[in-house]
Design a protein that fits this description.
The structure is a single chain. The chain has eleven helices and no strands. By secondary structure, it is an all-alpha fold. The protein has one domain. The longest helix is centred in the middle third of the chain and has 27 residues. It starts with a helix and ends in a 10-residue tail after the last helix. 36% of the residues are buried.
Length: 246
């Protein structure tokens, strides 16, 4: 069991470095408290890897992934649009942590569940469980993924302290949309990862151009151009005082 635990920890930890799961963890860390993100990741990883080791132990490596990947892609596009829309809390809600933490926890958990179903990490766990002790693989793979994503959470939490809220919201939405487009393309178009990344970036850029061309009132609030001081004065009928030299 210990050998399976160590092997699966090393394999999954290395596989997660630079993976979209780390980018997701960093993105969520920009929006939510780090312990909420880590808790959601742990819950989702525990469940997904339990499914993985069960499949690997009893059924082998046969698992249809295209439909799950498409569903996950649609979900991430939805998350991106929701992030652009933004959330508003009343003063009473803002002071009650239970009203803000619970939705965040379930959002993180559901996002990682959808993202990891059919992902290469799940397939790697299935493969490991087919030839090793399933309990050791389950524990080791879960710890390996949580550890890798914890590194991303640290980076996201540190970066979030130095970025304005508007920039965080736009960056998070762009990442979610990018994940969604990539996962949709990955499951409907057999192309290389580089081509998929370039195409996803192109779709994201096209969408940004379309939004930029829209009238101000049709854009999401976070993407509306903020009026300058002069425009604000003109709108309110006020003028800045003019100082004359004696």
């Amino acid at each position: 069991m210990l050998a399976a635990l160590a092997l699966s920890f090393g394999v999954i930890f290395i596989a997660e470095l630079g993976d979209k799961s780390q980018l997701m963890a960093m993105t969520f860390a920009l929006r939510y408290r780090w312990w909420v993100v880590l808790g959601g990741i742990t819950a989702a990883t525990t469940a997904v890897h339990l499914i993985s080791v069960a499949v690997g132990h009893y059924l082998g490596a046969a698992l249809p992934t295209h439909l799950l990947g498409i569903i996950a892609g649609v979900a991430f596009v939805f998350f991106g649009l929701w992030t652009l829309r933004g959330d508003r809390l009343s003063e009473d809600e803002a002071t009650r942590a239970e009203r803000t933490s619970a939705p965040a926890f379930f959002a993180v958990t559901s996002a990682f569940l959808l993202a990891e179903l059919g992902d290469k990490t799940m397939l790697a766990t299935i493969t490991l469980a087919a030839d090793n002790d399933w309990v050791g693989v389950w524990i080791g793979s879960t710890i390996g993924m949580v550890a890798a994503d914890a590194l991303a959470i640290i980076v996201g939490a540190i970066a979030g302290k130095h970025l304005p809220e508007r920039a965080i919201q736009i960056a998070a939405a762009a990442l979610f949309l990018g994940f969604g487009f990539y996962m949709l393309l990955e499951n409907i178009w057999p192309a290389s990862a580089l081509v998929l990344v370039a195409t996803s970036a192109g779709i994201l850029a096209l969408l940004a151009g379309i939004v930029a061309a829209l009238p101000q009132r049709w854009r999401p609030a976070v993407l509306r151009t903020r009026p300058s001081t002069m425009d604000a004065n003109e709108d309110t009928g006020r003028r800045e005082p003019v100082h004359r030299e004696a």
